[in-house]
Fold this protein.
Amino acid sequence: MTDVVLVDEGGLALDHDGTLTWAEIECGPFGPAFFAVIAEKLRQPLDFVLERAKKIYEETILPNPARFGWVLDDPFVFNGETFPRQRFMAPATPDPMLRCNAIGRELLRGVMDPAEIGKFLNGAYGVGYEATIDAPKEGLAEFLEEVCRRKMRTRIATNSATDAVQRKLLRHLGESELYRWWHERVVGGARKFDPTEIVPKDDSPESLAAAALWPADYPAEIELPGFPRATVIKRPRLLKFLVEFKASIEKDLGHEIPWSRIVFVGDIFDIDLVLALWLGCHVGFMTNEFSPAWEVAYITNHPRGIIMTGVAEILPFYDYVQSLPA
């Protein structure tokens, strides 16, 4: 890699929770709050539900991690007939929120209508997220300051609510020019996990264009070497974010750029990185001890990917990418 950037004609997209923060620490209170919602639904004591959750994770999910994950019900049509199908949008183990989601689905199996479980768990997720604490990674303030100083074209794309992440930044940075600069660059509610089509809000050209963003020749899922199941890349809302981010960069520069000029850094391969990688972006995989081995191996051997463990590694990789021939 190089320390010198001759021309910066790219952009940096960042996930927040687990990428810029320590997920295992900040989500300490997430589980109890999340499972309290489920306990109320089951009309069972929280301690009992927490014990069941621990047993499900250790005895059912951990021995067979490829069979569990963030699951969405996604009906598909074959020979004119509609069949219910479940698609895995992310594995079960990489972070506490994903683990709770997979466990919650098992707790509710046979208790709720399968079509309603996903919506219910999303509500429990919102309750759990409000209970999370702040756990910024070492060097985060310095990283955010350097990105701001360089006036880099950047966005934080998070599944969490925009204001929730903005509040975390405020608590970390204080009321300052640096905070205000980053405040405008948080894109919350990104729904990077969502494979469903975007429904037009109205008949305006902008609304119709957003709804038609997933081209007919784009596959819904792809097979990757070493992976235990197909990986879903159909994430229309994430594609919308990426297309709009690329367009904003091109507007700023006054000319088009290839996807390879954009760097996306995230900690969940399926949710953050696979679509960006498929489009042609460079990606930084912010790994932890729970990252699936097959994902780590794939990114390690990919020419447009790099394994990361801390925020200090983001800008050197970004600068390296910008030094490459277009």
Summary: The two ends are 16 Å apart (CA to CA). The mean pLDDT is 89.
